Amino acid sequence: MKQLKLLALLVLLQIASFQLSAQTVCAIVKIEIRQELSFERQAFDAKMVISNGLDILSLENLNIDVLFQDVDGNPVLASSDPDNTNALFFIRIDSITGVNNIDGSGVLNAGEVAEIHWLIIPAPGTGGLTPAGIRYGVGATVSYTYGEESQTVNVVPDFITVAPTPLLKLDYFLPADVFGDNPLTPEVEPVEPFDLGLRISNTGAGFADNLKIESAQPKIIENDQGLLIDFQLLGTSVNDAAVSNSLLADIGRLDAGKSAMVSWLMQSSLNGEFVSFEADFVHSDDLGGQLTSLIDAPIDTHILFHRVKVDYAGRDQIRDFLAYDEDILRVYESNGGQSQVIDESSSNVVTNLGIVDGKQKYQVNFSAIAGAGFARWSDPYNGVKQEVTAFRSDGKLLPSVNIWQYRIETDPGVFEFYFGLFDVDSTGQYEIIINANESNMEPVITVISPQHGEAGTQLQFNIEVTDSNPSDALTLVAIGAPSGSSVNFISGNTWQFSWLPQSADVGIANFTLNASDGTAQTTAHMQLIIAAGATADPNLSVAISNCQSELSLNQSIVYELKATNIGNIDINSATLLSNLSEHLDTITWTCQAFDGANCPQNNGNGNVNHVIDIPTGSSLTYLISANVTGAYNDIVQTDASIQMPSGITDIDVNDNTATDSDIITGLIFKSGFEDINNTTCN
User: Fold this and answer.
1) Are residues 244 and 63 in contact, defined by beta-carbon separation less than 8 angstroms?
2) What was the pLDDT predicted at 189?
3) Mean per-residue pLDDT, 203-216
4) Is the dihedral of CA 448, 450, 454, 458 positive or negative?
5) Which residue has the higher pLDDT, 268 or 277?
6) pLDDT exceeds cutoff 90 at 245
7) H/E element, 291
8) In this predicted structure, what is the pLDDT of residue 228?
9) CB 439 within 8 A of CB 459
10) Chain centroid to CA 679: how far?
């Protein structure tokens, strides 16, 4: 797994802070939001074992050069310099035992054995553009002296196959205006949450797997006027999935040519305007730095205007980002595309049709638009939220997010109010229906409080959110909930709160539920009463073995992959993964459950990637059958891992991963020094 640290360097926030001699003083506040992006990627472990069989002489001046070549035998560049972007591979020594060095000054004492591991990471593009990838030869030159003699050994190259890599393009979106309390007015204005958005697009030829982005709470790093201002990161959504209490955006697999839309719900305690927004990232030099980075620099930032839907036939239903790049309005789509939006506000004519069938109607006319278009007009309701519907002249009903009310603060406490309309391939003629006689009702939260739980026992309960208008899109977020808890959408009007309290959580926990229908919001106070219980010791283990150390080509083998709950609490929604060697094919498996566990599937093929429920004391065993392929001296390495669900920490992570590594006839280097006499069952 490769990890990057993504830094969103905020943003200058201009806030009307206090009044002095009837003049407004503007304060500048700078915040930063740190994020960490991680995903699985290719890496190779090259291993060499050198045994000094001499009784009295040391091997001195030991030097090992690892060499790379293409399939035609031409040398290719590998480098340990993370800034050398001309190289096709990043290579560094991962571990070395038995010898002090291999740079020409190494000494291997008489009768001793040295073992060296190199970490090899391909640079972007090394794997080509097709799923088959590209093969490369990896060999080495070993030189040393003993007594008066010098020796050089040319290690015959073996082949590795590099699969195509992903390349991630990041676009961030942040609104210009944020609305909280205005300190210049005597009343306390309500805080309005806003989105920090991200579109992450895979423009590479390979897929990114287990892709995750985790955010930290915003941190104020500059506040010269000492304003009493607070920023909060409330929750996260991915591709419009319901916002939960987690700040982790778990995207999963992102295939080549695909995009994901992420939104972090935030709020500011004071009114303000973002006047600068920058984003940057840092990649660890230990994993290749700039050489192996799979982030397409630079990261672009945009001023978010609104979330809309580009609703061409066959498109997904995920909302897109409508944003300004300086004075240019563009829509950034969930399919990875983007286009300039034609603004026809200046040609727009609005006609009041009066009350028809008890509803206020307007007619909107502007020039027809090919592609994406936008128009705005003054809001006669001065920001009082209305239920609004728009029909195009050809009968199309606009998605509810494509017509909206918004405001612009022109001076401190002074606003202009507008309706905005977005559409694609617009006819330019619309009938707007306002339910002016019907007030929008707040959503209703139904949940029992207080809830009683016990330390060490999973606490779960359902929350119902209903609304008088069944077409409203409802969201629910928990503010100030205990660390490690989550509120997740189940179905219909039901969300589920889940938390595993620990002994330190014994007592009373208070937090707030906030439900929204996109216009109105409502809150409910929640109280959790946690009693002392048995100490919770979550502990999952995984093992994998075929009980062999040497394999033959075309041999049929069986791996036993076993997941066991050796802790004292039941675990639901753990993740069990296998990563089978590229030197295995015709892979099938069967699952057996013991002592209360259940198999997600009884049989299947390929790698295991299952979410499992595994009660304490129970286990799952997968028998994985495969055929050995590859070449002489290939290493057949198969890995397995088990992961706790979010919010639960394993008391012993050392048994959460396992590896079975076997040799066909040798290791990755054919130097003649490898020890292949290990016959212990792994």
Assistant:
1) no
2) 72
3) 88
4) positive
5) 268
6) no
7) helix 289-292
8) 67
9) no
10) 41
**Main-chain phi, psi angles of 44, to 5 degrees:** -120, 140
Amino acid at 79: S
How wide is the angle at C-alpha 578 spanned by C-alphas 650 and 555, nearest 5°? 140
Q: Cα(249)–Cα(605) distance, rounded to whole angstroms?
A: 29
Q: How many CB atoms lie within 10 A of CB 298?
A: 12
Q: Among residues 155, 167, 267, 249, which one has the least CA distance to residue 211?
A: 249
| CA separation, residue 46 to residues 138, 314, 352 (Å) | 9, 47, 75
**Residues of the chain above pLDDT 90, percent:** 49
Q: What is the mean pLDDT of the chain?
A: 85
Confidence of residue 552 (pLDDT cuts 50, 70, 90): confident
At a CB cut-off of 8 Å and minimum separation 6, what does 54 contact?
Answer: 110, 111, 146
Query: What tens digit of pLDDT does each residue of 288-341 get?
Result: 888 888 888 888 989 999 999 999 988 898 999 999 998 999 999 999 999 999
Which are the contacts of 561, defined by CB distance < 8 A and separation ≥ 6? 542, 543, 544, 576, 578, 589, 608, 621, 622, 623, 624, 640
Tokens at 76, concatenated: 């290719």
CB neighbourhood size of 150 (10 A): 11
- Sign of the alpha-carbon dihedral angle for 285, 289, 292, 296: positive
Following CA atoms 178, 181, 185, 187 in sequence, which dihedral angle do they give, to the nearest 10 degrees?
A: 140
- Strand 78-79 to 89-97 pairing: parallel
Q: What is the reported pLDDT for 297?
A: 83
Question: H-helix or E-strand containing 292?
Answer: helix 289-292
pLDDT of residue 202: 95
pLDDT computed for residue 100 by the predictor: 93
C-alpha distances out from residue 139 to 45, 109, 142, 644, Å? 13, 24, 10, 39
pTM over 0.85: no
Mean pLDDT of 421-445: 85
Please say whether the beta carbons of 174 and 11 come within 8 A: yes
Q: Could you tell me which of 529, 559, 556 has the C-alpha nearest to residue 547?
A: 559
CB 474 within 8 A of CB 465: yes
Torsion sign over Cα 306, 312, 316, 317: positive
Would you list the DSSP string of 629-649? Answer: -S-TT-EEEEEEEEEPPTT--
First to last CA, the chain: 24
What pLDDT, in 10s, does the model give residues 577-621? 999 999 999 999 999 999 989 999 999 999 999 999 999 899 999
3-state helix, strand, coil in the chain (%, to 5): 5, 55, 40
Q: How far is CA 165 from CA 128, 283, 290, 293, 415, in A?
A: 8, 16, 15, 10, 49
